[in-house]
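Hi support team,

I'm opening this ticket because the web form for multi-chain structure prediction keeps timing out on my end. I have pasted the exact lines I submitted so you can reproduce it. The total is 228 residues across two entries, so I didn't expect it to be a heavy job. Is there a limit I'm missing, or should I split the entries? Thanks in advance, R.K.
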Amino acid sequence: EPEVTQTPSHQVTQMGQEVILRCVPISNHLYFYWYRQILGQKVEFLVSFYNNEISEKSEIFDDQFSVERPDGSNFTLKIRSTKLEDSAMYFCASSGQGYTEAFFGQGTRLTVV
Amino acid sequence: AQTVTQSQPEMSVQEAETVTLSCTYDTSENNYYLFWYKQPPSRQMILVIRQEAYKQQNATENRFSVNFQKAAKSFSLKISDSQLGDTAMYFCAFMKHAGGNQFYFGTGTSLTVIP
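Hello R.K., no limit was hit. The queue was backed up. Here is the completed structure from your submission:
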C-alpha cells in the first residue's frame, strides 16, 4: 500500500540553526501539506502546496519557514533559524485529485535545544 | 472561519463495549468533508472514517460508524466492540470542499480501552 514517508524520524538541532525536514508523498498525489503538533496539543495546519506553489498558509508559517519540491518526488520543509517553540512533531501529508482525505506520514519529531 | 470542537478530552471504555466520541463544528460552507483520525502512541495519523456533507447516509467502516447531523453540525464517532488496539488519541477534522484542502482539527479525545 502506498504511503507517505518522512525523514528523519527524530531531529535534534540547536537554536538558531537551519533544519530541513523531508517527505516523499504518495506518487500520484497532487496536493501536499505540512502540519505540526506541539506535544499534547492539536494538529495545526502550516502550509499546502499545489502545482509547484503554495496554495494556502497559516499564520504560523512565517518568513522563517519555506517549502520546496526540488524534484518529482520530494517535498521539504525548511526552518531557517529554529526557535525553542519550533519543537514539535511535524507531519507531511498528501492527497489526490479532488477533495479526498489526506494521507499522513509518520512524522518527524523536531527538538530544538 | 472553520472551527472543530471536541468536548471530551479523555474517555475510557471496557473492552468489547461501545463508546461514542463527540465532535461539533462550525462553518458557513455547504459542501465539505468530515473525518476521524486516530493517533496511537506511535503518533502516526491514521484515517478511521470520512463523511461527505452532501450524503445523508452515515458512513460506516467495520466497527466504526458516525452519526452525522448536518443541521446540528455534529459528527460523532461510535466504536463498537472496543479492542485494546483502539487505545489512541482521536481527532475530528473538517475540510472545506472549495479551496486549499486545509484540514481543521479538533483538540482530540484520548480514548483508553480497559481490558
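A quick check on our side: Chain A touches chain B through 26 residues (CB under 8 Å). Let us know if the file doesn't open in your viewer.
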